[in-house]
Amino acid sequence: MEAYIFVSFIMFFSGIYGFLSRKSLLMVLISIELILNSADINFAVFNRYLYPEHFEGFFFAMFTIAISACETAVAIAIVINIYRNLNNVEVDSLDELKEPEASDEK
Amino acid sequence: MQYTLLILLLPLLSFVVLGLMDTKWKARVAGSVGTLVLSVVAALSYYTAWAYFSTANVGGIYQKIVPLQTVWMQFSGQLHIDLGILLDPISVMMLVVISTVSLMVHIYSLAYMKGEKGFERYYAFLSLFTFSMLGLVVATNIFQMYIFWELVGVSSYLLIGFYYTKPEAVAASKKAFIVTRFADLGFLIGILILSFYTQTFDFGVLNSGNAGIFASASGVTFMGASVLSWAMALIFIGGAGKSAMFPLHIWLPDAMEGPTPVSALIHAATMVVAGVYLVARLFPVYVTYTPDVLHGIAYVGAFTSLFAAVIACTQTDIKRVLAFSTISQIGYMMVGLGVSGYGGHEGTGYMASMFHLFTHAMFKALLFLGAGSVIHAVHSNEMQKMGGLRKYMPVTHLVFLIGCLAIAGIFPLSGFFSKDEILAATYMYSTGLGIGMSFIAGLTAFYMFRLYFNIFWGKENSYEHSPHESPLAMTIPLVVLAFFSFFGGLIPFGKFVTSDGAAYTGETNYVLAIVSVLIGITGILLAAAMYRKKTMLPDRVSQSLGFIYQLARNKFYVDELYLFITKNVFFKGMASPVSWYDRHVVNGSVNGLAVVTQWVSVKIKGIQTGKVQQYAWVFLLGTLLMAFLILFL
Prior knowledge:
The complex is a heterodimer of chains A (106) and B (633). Chain A is mostly helical and 106 residues long. Chain A has 3 helices and no strands. Chain A has helices at residues 2-21, 25-50, 56-86. Chain A is elongated. Helices cover 71% and strands 4% of the residues of chain B. Chain B has 25 helices and 6 strands. Chain B has helices at residues 4-21, 27-55, 89-112, 119-138, 142-160, 167-198, 203-206, 212-219, 227-242, 251-254, 260-269, 274-281, 283-289, 291-312, 318-338, 348-378, 394-408, 414-429, 431-456, 472-487, 510-531, 537-545, 547-553, 558-604, 612-632, and strands at residues 57-58, 61-62, 65-74, 80-87, 221-222, 225-226. Chain B has a two-stranded antiparallel sheet with strand order 1-2. A two-stranded antiparallel sheet of chain B has the order 3-4. In chain B, strands 5-6 form a two-stranded antiparallel sheet. The longest helix of chain B has 47 residues, at 558-604. Classes of the chains: A mainly alpha (106), B mainly alpha (633). Chains A and B meet through helix 1 of A and helix 24 and helix 25 of B.
């Protein structure tokens, strides 16, 4: 069991690391997938070892996969739109909503 | 007699329907509906009067009948506001007066207001006014009266400002509303004081002669007078505002900006006598517990009467002459009430005042409608533009003459009887006051005939298109009112309306009657000498009077005084500091809050970098911190 947990642990933190450090939106998305999948592994593992006669954990994992697929589809759509507007997919360039620097101070 | 509720509800219904239909109906339909409803109301009022006076007399005294009474608001065990209908001699008399004049005005307006923009609105407002005024007179308690009192004020405001595109009309309507509203403040305070001490609003209880309920109010004194006196004086101030007593009379002459039939209905016959009615309604309280206030009312009335009569002699706008004459006549009624005692011969003043209210409503409505007919023909209010009209408008001329003779108090027209009773009562109270009132009667005859001769005689003006007699819808109401003005005085009024409800036949004081007729005739002859032919006499007289003439011509500068006081005392002394406080302290604190918030937000907005990954870092660190706290603490 520890081995499974260890794998999911590594996946989770490499996901976090990727989410925080990658510049490309696509890589950020892939990192999110890693985090989600590590959570799925946890669901399956804990179900398998703690309640072997039940299947709820597996079902949850299935649901999560389906939902993350949808979420990814939406995210990809957003990324495509961002690319159309900004001509790149760099995370750092997405600060349009911020108030422009020192514009209307009284 | 529960059907009396219909008298109230029908005009209200008519107001709602006409108001909602507004322009959806043709003007003629709206006018017909309004007039039809009013004629039903008038018929019901007559029936009520007949039924009341034939059945309510028990043991020689007219009983109060309350056909309807519901508790509306319960404040405490004793104190509650009711809504109901009270029938007694004066309220029944007022029902007849109001519905008659209102019906005449409705019919008259069909022709007079023909083709005016907002004809339907006009009829809706007329219905509203009729409803409020009828509600005012049948109120069972002082608070219900106050509610309708304000409703009357509103409808008066709406009707004065009927020509709302005219700045003078708008100013006049505002002036009327504010001045009467200001007086109503006194009324309201008076009601509150009275009800606080007596624990009742009900007229029946207040007038029952039960001294116990006034004991607490008479006992407490404030600034040298008992609280009860203060309350009654304040209530009179409310009445003085509506009835245009000096110095609250300034709104009435300006109110003539409204359509002439409205002036006839509201500002001559019905609403302006509401103050008189109020005093009459509470008369037992005034006369028994606060006679000083009542005498004060007499002097206020007498002064107002003289004051307005003098001004009326100098005005050139015919409607304004009539307005000042109305003020003067209401002053007469107030004097009648003020000098009256309670019951029998002592109560002549009360009876005379109500009698004069009745006859005055008829002949003043007649005069106003007659003036409206003249204005309709000449298209001007100014006397100088008229003259020699008797050839063109024979019917109007005749009825106007009847009206003038009635108000001048010439035997045997209605004004003679009622005015004579008031004079008799006044002489009984004080000879000095009586002589003053006789003098005013002479002035009245003079200025009314000045008006009459200037309009119908005198030099004939060159009219652009020759004036013509008014249509039938206008002359019929005139003739009807002329009939009442002529024969109204023959009603044995003392049999119906007296201070204590018992019938009483006044003995005619022949000397006084002959003298006052002679005074009236003197006034008329004087006016005839000055104005019948175009002479230099009026100018010479006015020049020789010089200063006084100028004073009267400018209405003794009361308006200017008011303006001065409001500008310098209220605006500068009160309104400006209040507005400064509002602008700087109230607005300032709110603005200050906004400024501080903005300043804080500017200072901390650097945190919002817009970098998603930075947020994620913070989020992660926060989560770790929380996990750390939960695990190890």
